[in-house]
Amino acid sequence: MKAITFNLLAWVMLPIMDGFAKYLSADLPVLQITWARYFFTVVFVFPIMFLFFRKNLVWSDKPKLQITRGIILLTANICFFYAISIISLAKALTLAFVAPLIVTAFSPIFLGERVGVRRWSAVIIGFIGSLVVIRPGFVEINLASIAALGTGVMYGFYLIITRKLSTSDNPLLTLLLTGVVGAIIISFVMPFVWVKPNFNQWSIMAAIGIFACLGHFFLILSLKYADASKLAPLSYFEIITNIIIGYYFFIDFPDNWTFLGLFIIVLSGIYISKRENLIKK
User: Fold this and answer.
1) The domain containing residue 262 runs over which residues?
2) What pLDDT does 232 receive?
3) pTM of the predicted model, to two decimals?
4) φ, ψ at 136 (rounded to 5°)
5) Are 110 and 103 contacting, i.e. CB atoms less than 8 angstroms apart?
């Protein structure tokens, strides 16, 4: 029960972060919002680790992989924050839900895992679900939709690297290093795009970091009590929080095609998760 509670709390916290990012995107550059997400995450995570988890503050066994992971997640965040600045939270998240399909498709190459016909079929069906949302040829494809889909692709590779690191590095150390890598890289761009925030915008930028930190912290806690494969289907709870925030604050509600595409992608993702559990048993 603890694992489920912590996992669901994570999927409440992270959409709140997305909502703040979408709100700020009307006045601040996407890169500056992304910088805030990383900078304030490091500001909050480092003191917690120093005070309570000091023994985990050791150098990584796989520094190159940690840096690669940080760069990939940074790219995914930039793509997603750009996407939600243009399209609805629900549509962007639905397209980003292709991440588990990417993990399944590329795990034979990078993780040496065997993927059977059934799981390959689920990947293909899930991709069809993303096409239903975008509807190429029927609706003009914009850069925001492609960015949202790119988020899912990047996040899929991020999850693959996370699996590799889980056998060597502490999760809290990985969380901190990912934040540090992202903060350092994107800080080099800030002098070229910086827009001076007012006090309210500074507060929301800090809140983005806080909710990112809390969301990932609850995810880590949930993984202490249950396997990732068992908790994977719960990630789709994020869409509920996302739809509520999008409708209540931005008057955005998914159309029927988005719901249909979401249904297809979620079903394929849940099937893949069930198959992974069955194979492990």
Assistant:
1) 2-280
2) 66
3) 0.85
4) -60, 135
5) no
